[in-house]
Every structure is written in C-alpha cells, then in structure tokens.
UniProtKB/TrEMBL annotation:
<dbReference type="InterPro" id="IPR041243">
    <property type="entry name" value="STI1/HOP_DP"/>
</dbReference>
<feature type="compositionally biased region" description="Basic and acidic residues">
    <location>
        <begin position="91"/>
        <end position="107"/>
    </location>
</feature>
<keyword id="KW-0677">Repeat</keyword>
<dbReference type="GO" id="GO:0005634">
    <property type="term" value="C:nucleus"/>
</dbReference>
<dbReference type="InterPro" id="IPR019734">
    <property type="entry name" value="TPR_rpt"/>
</dbReference>
<feature type="region of interest" description="Disordered">
    <location>
        <begin position="91"/>
        <end position="110"/>
    </location>
</feature>
<comment type="similarity">
    <text>Belongs to the FAM10 family.</text>
</comment>
<dbReference type="GO" id="GO:0030544">
    <property type="term" value="F:Hsp70 protein binding"/>
</dbReference>
<dbReference type="Pfam" id="PF18253">
    <property type="entry name" value="HipN"/>
</dbReference>
<dbReference type="Pfam" id="PF13414">
    <property type="entry name" value="TPR_11"/>
</dbReference>
<feature type="region of interest" description="Disordered">
    <location>
        <begin position="369"/>
        <end position="397"/>
    </location>
</feature>
<dbReference type="GO" id="GO:1902494">
    <property type="term" value="C:catalytic complex"/>
</dbReference>
<dbReference type="InterPro" id="IPR034649">
    <property type="entry name" value="Hip_N"/>
</dbReference>
<comment type="subunit">
    <text>Homotetramer. Interacts with Hsc70 as well as DNAJ homologs and Hsp90.</text>
</comment>
<dbReference type="GO" id="GO:0046983">
    <property type="term" value="F:protein dimerization activity"/>
</dbReference>
<feature type="region of interest" description="Disordered">
    <location>
        <begin position="262"/>
        <end position="286"/>
    </location>
</feature>
<feature type="domain" description="STI1">
    <location>
        <begin position="297"/>
        <end position="336"/>
    </location>
</feature>
C-alpha cells in the first residue's frame, strides 16, 4: 500500500504536530474539534485548557527599523518617564450640582450687589472651614451674576480645598473664558492640574499666573512642578528631534535610491546607444547592448568559460584572419554555429557571419564581431582584389 500523502503534505503534518507539542492549548480551539475528538476516540486524554499555556513561548527580538541606514536601532521615544507622584490624588467625578448660572442673563446692579453680599458670606464660611457651605453661597452668587470671573475662580478655590481638582478646573476654565487675565483662575487651575499629575499643564498655568500677578504661594507651587514639567518638555523635544531625524534619513535614502536608479538607466542607455542596432536603422552592426543580451544565453556563457574557447575568440578578435586556424575545431565551430543562429533569429546582421547574410566582399564562412572588423577568409575563398573594369579607351585601335 502506497503512502497517500505527498512529501509536502507530510512536512505540513510534521509542522502541525510540532506546534501541538509546543502549544497544546490550540487543540481546544473550535476549528480543531475534529482532531481532539479523534485523539479521545483512541483513548487519549487532553489536559484542561486552563492548565495549558495558550500561546507558545516566543523569545523577544530586538526590532530594527527597516528604513534606518546600517540597521540603527532606535530607542522608543514613547518610553514612560519616571515622576515623583507624591501629593497626587484620584480624579473626582463631576456632578450636576456645579451650576454655572444662565450665561444669557442680563445682570442688574441689584443682582451685582446681592452677589457681592453672597460672596462675602462665602469667604467668611471658607475661612472658618465650612467649605460645603461656602460652595453653596458661591453658587447662589454665581446664579445672580454668572458673568463674574472672580466668583467662579473663588468657588474653584473652594473645590480645591475639598480635593476636587476636576470641579476646580471646570470653574477656573469658565472664569478664564470670561476674563483671560484672571491670575486667580490660572493659579487655582494650575494647582488642580498638579494634584492630577498633569505637570506640564500645571507649570504652564502657574507660570502665567506669576506673569499676571506674582505672589509667593504661586511661585512656590510653580517650583514644585517644574522638575517634572521639564522632564516632559525635554522628552517631547527629544521625540520631535528623533522624528525629524528619521524623516530626513528616509528622505535621503529615497534620493539615494532614485539617483542610483537614474544612473543605472543612464548607463544602460549609453551602452545601447554606443553602436546602433540593425533594428534601429543602423549600419547593420548590432548595438553593444544587443550583443551582450545574446551573450546572456546559458550555453554561450558556459562555452566562454572554457579556456580554449576564450583563447580562440581572443585570438580571432586580435586578428580576424586567424579564424581559419579553428575551422577544423568542432568545439569552436559549434559555438560559432550557436552564435550564428542567435544573430539570425534576432534580425541582427554581422557582416560575413555564417548564416546572417554575408556582406559585399565577404563570402559566407567569414566571421564578424562587434567592433567593426570584417571576416577572415576561408580556405575556399581568395583575398585577391577583383579584376579591374576595362576602360573606355581599351581596343580602340
């Protein structure tokens, strides 16, 4: 009985078995249910999927960027930075109690006066530590005068005391929409960003607050976040620099490849144009490009690797009349016949080359080569000049 699986199928089966050995968990996949049932029908038992590794172990490989020159390994610009996160808190969730007032409300002088009274009460409660009551009073004041950036910034400060950084950020952001030069809004929002570990944003806001209205507490907070913010800034600059360097390398590589392709095309065009081919309306001599294409034939290339053949053709190229010395050499004549067939089949015409159409003054049996020299005479051919044509004065007498 012959084996029913060919060699290729057998190799694939061996690979599948090797995969099962290295990762037996795949036998629990739905697509391989038929194979699992077969193993169990033979009395075999498979361990539970939970006790088997679901994936084969693969050694980590160091990735090399394909387009980087000389296989330069680039470090990952997205690698995580290490920060001192002490003092950071979990972000708070915003709720519907944080009222912003009606932004379209027309605020009267009476509303402004009542809002100021509420603000004073809120500040008093805040100083006494009644933060929740202070937030309630600030909210009433904001509803009376929703166009006051100061009221929103102060309520943001109260939320900051309750360790609700997101609520503080929301109030201060609204305050800055109303007044982009509110130092208090920048100050408290910067502190809220610090509590969330947003170092770069914290430094930006606190720096802006110091520029508008410097105070010692804001400056102290700014010094606290500057080291981490500086790390981020340097990291982003390094990342951008690496990106630009990579883009420049890729651009230079594209230029190099395009230039090399252009040079190859120009060189090939020059070879083809050195001597015009017969198909291009030339003198009947094939171009060097055509000649070298013919020499790509495996038999011809193999023949020229024979020292005797190479020496013979070198001898003939030095002196075409030496051709007669090799007419009795079957090895040389076999190659000549092969070349004759190639030239004849390509439509090219080597003057005097056997089988390609002998030119005037060169009978079949001559051999011509690229370079312009004519064929050599055979034993049956004479090199005597043709008889002179009689002149009109002959036999006049």
């Amino acid at each position: 009985m012959s084996f029913p699986i060919n060699e290729e199928g057998l190799d694939k089966l061996k690979q599948f078995i090797a995969l099962c050995k290295s990762s037996p968990a795949i036998l629990h996949l739905p697509d391989l249910r038929f194979f699992k049932d077969y193993i169990e029908s033979l009395g075999g038992k498979l361990p539970k999927a939970s006790t088997m590794s679901s994936e084969p172990k693969v050694e980590p490989k160091e990735e090399v960027a394909p387009d980087t020159p000389e296989g330069i390994v680039e470090s990952d610009p997205e690698s995580e930075l290490e920060f001192d996160m002490s003092g950071c808190v979990e972000p708070d969730k915003l709720d519907g109690n944080q009222k912003m007032g009606d932004p379209s409300k027309e605020v009267s002088e009476e509303d402004c006066d009542k809002a100021d009274e509420k603000r004073m009460e809120a500040m008093s409660q805040l100083s006494e530590g009644n933060i929740e009551k202070a937030i309630e009073l600030f909210t009433e004041a904001i509803e009376l005068n929703p166009q006051s950036a100061l009221l929103l910034a102060k309520r943001g400060q109260a939320y900051l005391k309750l360790t609700k950084p997101n609520a503080c950020i929301r109030d201060c952001t609204r305050a800055l929409e109303l007044n982009c030069d509110s130092a208090a809004a920048y100050k408290f929002r910067g502190r809220a960003y610090r509590l969330l570990g947003e170092w770069e944003l914290a430094a930006k806001d606190l720096r802006q607050a110091c520029n508008i209205d410097f105070d010692e507490q804001t400056d102290e907070w700014l010094k606290e976040v500057t080291p981490n913010a500086k790390k981020i800034e340097e990291h982003l600059l390094k990342k951008e620099r690496k990106k630009k360097e990579k883009e420049e390398r890729e651009r230079m590589e594209r230029i190099r490849k395009a230039r090399a392709a252009h040079e190859r095309a120009a060189a090939q065009e020059k070879v083809d144009e050195d001597v015009p081919s017969a198909s291009e309306g030339g003198t009947g001599m094939p171009g060097m490009g055509d000649f070298y294409k013919l020499l790509q034939d495996p038999e011809i290339m193999t023949a020229f690797q024979d020292p005797e053949v190479a020496q013979a053709f070198q001898d003939i190229s030095m002196n075409p009349s030496n051709f007669v010395k090799y007419q009795s050499n079957p090895k040389i004549m076999a190659l000549i016949t092969k070349l004759s067939g190639k030239f004849a089949g390509s439509g090219m015409n080597f003057p005097g080359f056997p089988g390609t159409g002998a030119s005037a003054g060169a009978a079949p049996g001559f051999m011509g080569f690229p370079g312009g020299f004519g064929g050599a005479p055979t034993e049956n051919n004479s090199t005597q000049p043709p008889p002179a044509k009689p002149s009109d004065d002959d036999n006049l007498d």
